[in-house]
Design a protein that fits this description.
Blueprint: E1 4-9, H1 15-28, E2 33-38, H2 42-46, H3 57-64, E3 66-69, H4 83-91, E4 95-101, E5 115-121, E6 131-133, E7 139-141, H5 147-163, E8 168-173, H6 181-193, E9 200-205, H7 206-215, E10 222-225, H8 227-240, E11 248-252, E12 257-261, H9 278-290, H10 294-309, E13 312-313, E14 325-326, H11 329-338, E15 371-381, H12 389-399, E16 405-412, E17 415-418, E18 430-437, H13 445-457, E19 461-471, E20 474-475
Parallel strand pairs: 1-2, 1-3, 3-12, 5-10, 8-9, 8-10, 13-14
Antiparallel strand pairs: 4-5, 4-11, 6-7, 11-12, 15-18, 15-19, 16-17, 16-18, 19-20
Bound molecules: nicotinamide-adenine-dinucleotide.
Nicotinamide-adenine-dinucleotide binds at residues 14, 18, 71-74, 84, 245, 260, 263-269, 275-276, 279, 316.
Length: 483
């Protein structure tokens, strides 16, 4: 059988030591890989490539489709972009898969039964990184949730659950507050759940879901969440296993994939030969499954568990009462190699035969809706007259209200302040002024331009606008708090 191509990045700090150790084990286990080395990280950043990757490296990744990456060091100071974010976005790695299982009794944890996987959306949400400062006081980040992006990640979560023989998917969102964006994520989850009737599907609000995760992680199986929540949840979950250093992250796309340990380049112990290669080795397990080599993945994972339970430990996990031998990186790798073909006796053996997670590429649902423009939110930078909302309201009623368009409300930080609220609260210099057609009917772009000209003539600094639409007659914008 032909060798399978992968790209390998040795990374920085402890990266080269642990990568060499892992590749020796993979080779001994019969992974039969055709490896092309690439250079990413600190050296490349210092050459002046702010993304940490040279432009010609993409050609190699386009050939191999898979990257096995050791941790890199991101130089301190401004101007450097996150290599991981660049790789994720450039290669369309939309799913971030982070398993968190405890290795009790070999590794101490309060949650010996915990065995869950977090499937985190990897490209959207606040990580689109669209931020603006709009006034002296106010900064904004756009949270983008798309239907195609949500369909992909939710379907991936269900498909992953099915193919790994897991039983339940829990979706976590904040759709009680973010009714449109998180509301879409929840809605798509409910829709796709109907395609998998044998898998239990449940939804929880992210706050109570996180509290439950922290207290009873064993009640979860697979969790799917938008990007930011998934990011936080993954760290909470891996902390609970008692072995953050063993965490693994798979980044999966339709055509490409990247596998790495969760820990960093540990510059404090680099070059001393004492780093634990386990996180990076365990990252090779989903990679081998992805490459159709589930049997090799199983052999490595079982040999690693056997080594660990026999008390052969690197200094980071060595405990005098439990460990037997303290070893360095190379010796640990040697001990794992010696155990290839053996199963663990205390820990549960893994069985990955036939358990191949292939890429999913399904066309997004076509959405045919009738969209109508029914108003506009005009955001103002206004810091006059003691920031009195009634003064601003009167000004707009007198100078801007006209023709078919009328001022419906003004909000400050989302709270309706005009027409007046009973309770006076602190206001910033950032005001949302909502205009709609007098009979709540359809408006034209021309009417919006006329309206903005009136703002300009009144000397008001409009900093941004958001059109208000209905889709099939349903309003597609949030109300003001208190409206
Ligand atoms: P870190 O994970 O490198 O180190 C935290 C602590 O854990 C250190 O004491 C370290 O010695 C120890 N440690 C980590 N991995 C270990 C291992 N395999 N064996 C034994 N001990 C280990 O986190 P940090 O110090 O915050 O970051 C160091 C650098 O790594 C930074 O430049 C950071 O940006 C980078 N980083 C890279 C990645 C990545 O490439 N995916 C991820 C996280 C951090």
């Amino acid at each position: 059988m032909a060798k399978v191509p992968i790209a390998v990045a040795y990374g920085d700090g402890i990266g080269p030591e642990i990568m060499s150790a892992c590749l020796r084990i993979l080779d001994a286990a019969g992974a039969d890989l055709e490896i092309t080395e690439i250079e990413v990280g600190e050296k490349v950043y210092r050459e002046g490539f702010s993304s940490g990757i040279r432009p010609d490296t993409w050609d190699i990744l386009q050939h191999t489709h898979v990257l096995y990456k050791a941790p890199i060091t991101t130089p301190q100071g401004g101007g450097y972009k996150s290599l991981n974010v660049t790789i994720r976005n450039s290669l369309g790695l939309y799913a971030n898969v982070r398993p968190s299982a405890s290795y009790y009794p070999v590794v101490d944890t309060n949650h010996p039964m915990m065995d869950l996987v977090i499937v985190r959306e990897n490209e959207e949400d606040l990580y689109a990184g669209i931020e603006h400062r709009q006034t002296a006081e106010v900064y904004q980040a756009l949270k983008l949730i798309t239907r195609p992006g949500t369909e992909k990640i939710v379907r991936y979560a269900f498909e992953f659950t099915k193919r790994t023989g897991r039983k339940k998917v829990t979706c976590l969102t904040k759709d009680n507050i973010l009714k449109l964006s998180d509301g879409l994520f929840h809605k798509v989850f409910d829709e796709i759940a109907t395609e998998y009737p044998t898998i239990e599907a449940e939804h929880m609000i992210i706050d109570i879901g996180t509290a439950k995760l922290a207290a009873q992680p064993e009640i979860f199986d697979v969790i799917v969440a938008p990007n930011l929540y998934g990011d936080i949840l993954s760290d909470v979950a891996s902390q609970l296993t008692g072995s953050v250093g063993l965490g693994v992250s798979s980044n999966i796309g339709d055509r490409y994939a990247m596998f790495e340990a969760v820990h960093g380049s540990a510059p404090d112990i680099a070059g001393r030969g004492i780093a634990n290669p386990s996180g990076l080795l365990l990252a090779a397990v989903p990679m081998l499954i992805h490459l159709g080599k589930a049997d090799v993945a199983e052999r490595i994972h079982n040999a690693w568990k056997r080594t660990l339970e026999e008390g052969i430990h690197t200094p980071d996990i060595y405990k005098a009462d439990r460990s037997k031998v303290r070893v360095g990186t190379t010796e640990f790798a040697f001990e794992v190699q010696q155990r290839l073909g053996y199963k663990p006796e205390i820990l549960e053996a893994v069985n990955y035969q036939g358990d191949i997670i292939t890429q999913l590429s399904m066309p997004p649902t076509q959405v045919n809706v009738h969209k109508e423009l029914v108003g506009i939110d005009v955001f103002l930078d206004w810091d006059e007259q003691g920031r009195d909302p009634s003064v601003l309201g009167k000004l707009l009623e007198d100078k801007v209200n006209s023709g078919e368009m009328k001022l419906v409300m003004i909000t400050n930080r989302g709270l309706k302040v005009y027409p007046a609220n009973e309770i006076k609260t602190f206001s910033t210099d950032h005001w949302r002024c909502r205009f709609q057609q007098k009979n709540n009917g359809v408006i034209s772009h021309k009417q919006i331009l006329d309206l903005l000209q009136k703002f300009d003539a009144a000397g008001l600094d409009f900093i941004k606008t958001e059109n208000l639409y209905t889709f099939d007659g349903e309003p597609a914008f949030s109300l003001g708090q208190g409206q």
